[in-house]
Model the fold of this input.
Amino acid sequence: MERPPVWLMRQAGRILPQYRAIRSSLSGFKELLFTPSLAAEVTVQPVDELDVDAAIIFSDILVIPECMGLDYEMVEKKGPLFNQTIQSSKDVEQLISGQIAAEKLEYVFEAIRLTKDLLDNRVPLIGFSGAPWTLLAYMVEGSGSKTFSKAKRLLYKDPELAHKLLNAITDTIIAYLKLKIKNGVDTIQLFDSWAGILTPDLYNNFAAPYLAKICKAIDEVPVIVFAKGAWFSFDVLAEMECEALGVDWTIDPKFARKAAKDKILQGNLDPCQLYADEKQIESKTQAMLEQFGQGHIANLGHGVYPDTPLNGVKTYVNTVKNYKYSS
Amino acid sequence: MERPPVWLMRQAGRILPQYRAIRSSLSGFKELLFTPSLAAEVTVQPVDELDVDAAIIFSDILVIPECMGLDYEMVEKKGPLFNQTIQSSKDVEQLISGQIAAEKLEYVFEAIRLTKDLLDNRVPLIGFSGAPWTLLAYMVEGSGSKTFSKAKRLLYKDPELAHKLLNAITDTIIAYLKLKIKNGVDTIQLFDSWAGILTPDLYNNFAAPYLAKICKAIDEVPVIVFAKGAWFSFDVLAEMECEALGVDWTIDPKFARKAAKDKILQGNLDPCQLYADEKQIESKTQAMLEQFGQGHIANLGHGVYPDTPLNGVKTYVNTVKNYKYSS
Done:
C-alpha cells in the first residue's frame, strides 16, 4: 500500500453543511436516527464531499440501552438523558437482551441496506457499537458526566450486579453486530469512550474481558477497538482478536506500536489540530503518518469537533491521500 | 519513616458536615473564599475531624485570573463562568500581572495567617496555585469544558499570543506563591488539572516549561507538581526542580516510580474507591501503599468527590496511619 486509508470519526455530522441542512429541517437528533433514508443520506455525505476511504453508518451508541428497554432523550447542547437508570438486580432483570433486543433495531439495519445501495461499493461501510463498559456507564449514571462516579460506584459496591449488566449488554451487542454484518457492514468499530476514567484494575476487570468476548464472537469482518484514554491497558487490548486498535492523541505512535505489536493502528491527530492553518495541518499530518508508518488507518484521535472548519478537514484528508510511504 | 503522611485533595469541602454547615449559611462559594476567618476555619476542619497530616488552604485556582483582571462567577452545579475571556493580544495587554496583581490577593494571605494561628504547628499548611496552562484554559474558554477546544485552538492558531499570556500568568503565579510563603505556607502544590487533554507536543511546549519556571523560582519550600492525565510527560515532569509529583489513578505506581526516579510520589487511590465498604477500602489502600513503597505521600488520584461517605474517608486515613512499611 502506498498510503494509509483515511476517514474521520463523526465525519457524518455538523462539519458538513449538507448535514446541517438536513438536521435543521428535523425536530431533533433522534428523528434523524429513526429515519433510515435520512440516516443513509448523511452517512454518504462525507464520501461525496470529502472523498474519504470509508463510510460509517450514522447512528448512536445508545441504541443498545434503548433496545434493552431504557429510552433516552438527546437534549440539545447537553447530551443524552435517560428516563430511568439501572440501580438494582431487579432493574437488570427487567431489561430485554440478546437477539430479541437487537432485532428491535430494524431502523438501523434498513439504514445500512439503503447506505450500501447509495455507496454502490465505492468504499466500505463501518458499523459500530458502544463498548459494554461505556454503555453501562450511561445506563447507571443516566446522563453524561465528568466523573461517571455513580457508574464507577457500582463497580466498587456491587461488582456482581455490574457483571450481570455487562453480560446482558455484551450479548445484545454481539447479536446487534451480527445483524449489522448480515445487513451489509464491512467492518466493525467498538467505541469505549469512557475507558480513560477507570483505573487499570477496573478496566481489566469490567471492560476488557467483555470487549474481548465481542472480538472473539465477531469473526465475519475486521474489528477496530477504540478505547479512548486506556493507554494503561494498551497491551491488554493488543491481545484481543481484533484487527486494529484506535489511538487517541495523548498516545505517542511509538508507544502504541510497541504495545500493539502487529495490530493495525488507527488515529491519532488531535481534533483541535484542524483549527490551524493549512500549512500546519499538512506538516503535522505528514509527521503523524511518518510516525505510524505502515499498518495504519489515518484518523483523528477522537471524533471531529462540530465547529471544525470544512477546509481544515479537507486539507487533512487530502494530505493523507497525497502521501506516499518513503520505503 | 514508618508510614507515609496522608492528606486528601479537596479535604476542606463538602465531605465534612462542618463545612456544609458554614457553606449553607453563606450566599455562595465566593463569599467563603473572600472571608479569611471562614476560609481559615474550613481549612482546619479536616485536621480536627480526620486527623490528616497536612492542611491545604481553602481557596480557588481562579483567584489568579481574577487578580489579573478577569472576574468570574461560580455557578452552582455548573462551575466557573467568566464575564470576559482572552481572545486577542490587546486582551492580554489589558491584564495586570506579576507582583501588582498578586498583591491584590490579600484576603488569601490573611486566611493563611489565621490558619497558621489555628493550626498552631500541629501540621504543615499547603498553599497552591493552578498551573499556567490550566489557568489559560479557563481564561480563553471562559468556563469549564469537556474538550477546552477554544483554549486548544489558541495554542494551534496563535502560539505567540498563547506564550505571551502564559508568561503573564507565570509571573503572577510566582509572585503570588512567594507572598503565600512569606505569609506562612510550608509547601506548595501546583495543579495542572487540564494537562490530560493536551498532546505530548502541546504539553511539552505550552505547559511544562512554565511549570519548570515556577519550580525553579520557588526554592523556599518543597513543591508538589500534580499534572492530572499527563502520564505521557511524566519523564519531563520528573526533570523539574520540585520535590514531589502527583499521580492520578490511571497511572500504575510502578510506571510512576520508573519515570519519576527519586522524586517523592503523591497519590493515587481512585476517589470512587471510597464508596466501597470498609474492608475493601482497607485492602486497596494497603495495596497502594505497598506498591508505592517509601518516598510516598498518600492521597487520592484526584480531589475527593463531594458525595463521598465520611466513614469511607476516615477508613482511608486511618488505614494509612496504621500502616507500617514492611522493610
Remarks:
- Chain B touches chain A through 31 residues (CB under 8 Å).
- Chain B has a mean pLDDT of 97.
